[in-house]
Amino acid sequence: MKLSSCLRRVFLTALLSLSALWAFADEGMFLINAIDAALEKKMQERGLALPAKAIYDADAPGATLSDAIVSLEFMGTGSIISHDGLLITNHHCAYSDLHALSTPQKNYLEEGLRAETLADEIPIKGKTVQFLKQVLDVTDEVMAFLKANPTKNPTMGFRKLSWNLEKKYEAQSGLSAQLASMWGGSKYYICLYKEYKDVRLVAAPPVCLAAFGGDIDNWQWPQQKCDFALYRVYAAPDGTPAEYSPDNKPAHFDKPLKISVKGLKEKDYAMVIGYPGTTDRYSSSFKVRLQQEVTLPLANAIRTEKMRLMKEAMNADPQVRLNYADKFFSLSNLQELQQMQEACCKRFDVVSEKQRTEKELQEWIDGDSLRRVKWGGLLHEMDSLYRAAETTKFRVTLFQETMVRATAVSIFATRLSTVKGRCEPKEWEGLDMELERKIFEMALTFWYEKLDTAYMSAFHKALRKRYGNDYAAMSASLWKQSPLTDGRLSAPITCREDSLARLQLIKEVMPKDSLRRFFHEMKIADFQRTKDYQALSGVNRTYKVALYEMYKDKGVTQYPDANSTLRVTYGRVGRMKTKDIRKPWYTTPCQILKKHNPKDYDFALREDVLKALKKAPGKGWNGWGKGGMKVDFITDNDITGGNSGSPVLNARGELVGLAFDGNAESLASDVSYTPEYNKCVCVDIRYALWVLDAYMGLDRILNELVLVR
């Protein structure tokens, strides 16, 4: 559902020596500014009916396709679909905003949101969107800076470098600048963005339509989700980006995406443009093995138990469901992703695949004396460092998942003791303290059962001696006397002075607060860091550089790991193969009606939704299209988290859908692309149009769109 994300098979040549190259042309999240003649030809062979410069051209006199693509604060993707700034993205990208606006009296998640007029469109405080205007290669400038400013701390050095270069290019361009590193520092680019700071919610279907099937269908196929929402970008009266003001007007855009109502058929060309978040396809077998055998199993076990407790409480109380909907939504997506990542890495034996790549790399290194001097012992060093760091990494994961992320109380306790003036009691509103206590008890259980006593403080050991394995009694004792849990923070606040005074009172009693003490009395230095552990980041960067240089030397076209920069991926519409079973490439409204179950929240439709679906047209939205109205469809585009909401475009660059999910069989794709199994799940744009028309009655929105047959 949330896309909540490789250089092994680039070409399958007659010379099978290039074992780690791409085997399928559809693999790759290519930099939008790096579509060279060879890649353009490949895309056109697949069916693209446009020149590369129609996709991105910083020097073009008019707008190109990429000018209509929007980053949602580098957490998701959207696109402009009207001259008046209408922006479409996934419903799950708007979920947090809809949740924050919802109340028991007006629940926008359950009921949907429809702004009948411009005046009804809801400003979202702090919401920004970014439009990429230009990408500059600054590799030579960066290398000169690093040479002139050597540092023993690469992280701090990169921060200093970023700050200097970004300020320089912002001053020159008047745009927002971000420095992006590729291939472990082999290449550097400055990305210049035009940022708008007045963004308003326009429309969203109810969650029963947008997330039909819920977590059960998440990462699965077939699905029947109407995963879309609409915002609008506003600007000052003179058209320039501005902070929110009631005087602002819808921003004007010369070239919004055109929307095709013809639809697609199997084997049609499909292109996705968006901001994929992170991948790690240049990772080593050592890193994948550590994740697969050590960190993922532990983190997944803890999150599974936390989700069970949350869902139990949410099913028992509608108010808890509303209060925890956003938290559960985010957690469940991450959990399912990483569970399947663990399973897929084992199923497709990614460790062995990486080891073959490393064998090829070592042979290439050994073939040249200079390369032997530079990287000859790299793989042996990585093996030693990763094995030495296993125990530390296990402890770090346990610490993060139990003491940092498990209960909201731990996060708040940390912030209260370290950050002045940033914590407000309103952040405490909506927490169910009995649920939080149960989560804390669960965290205590994992903590004590999994951690070596050498890393526990005297306070932790004293608690264990007193309560033994009775974690319910231990958690109750720590919980009941704490100012963090006794209701002081959630009591009504009359003014800011009252708020700050209450926080100060809590800070004063914190030294005597056993709950806060439990979270903080740890040997953090020993617990999180060792010399070998710190060295891992350095060898990982070196490994990426070595791989990059090997493929460059062999003349292989490369794409860097995703890092929230604008990318293009191409492929085709097609069926899914799952364990030798071929599944259809699209779904229909009748499948929704068959799955409808009023006793199961994830599959329960509102009465008005059910009534509308029963009247759904047989030939697509507004009578266009053949074969009946399609709900979702799948392609073989290469995507990951951050691509959520990305436009799916046909051969002419017209909008045909929105990417919203991957499939369970492809969830090793952050570290390894899986040919045939890698699918992109998309909502058909005509289904979204039908919802806007037949269910929501938003003619004013439909009249803004540029529809083409």
Compute the separation of the termini in Å: 29 Å
For the sheet with most strands, the description reads:
11 strands, antiparallel
Structural class: alpha+beta
Q: Residue-averaged pLDDT, rounded?
A: 87
- Name the beta content range: 5-15%
Instruction: Provide a count of the helices.
Output: 24
Low-confidence region ranges: 1-25
Rounded to the nearest angstrom, the radius of gyration is 26 Å
Total domain count:
3
What is the level-2 CATH architecture name of the largest domain? Beta Barrel
Please tally the β strands and state the result: 22
Shape: globular
CATH classification, class level of the largest domain: Mainly Beta
Might you state the CATH topology name of the largest domain?
A: Thrombin, subunit H
Q: Helicity range of the residues?
A: 40-55%
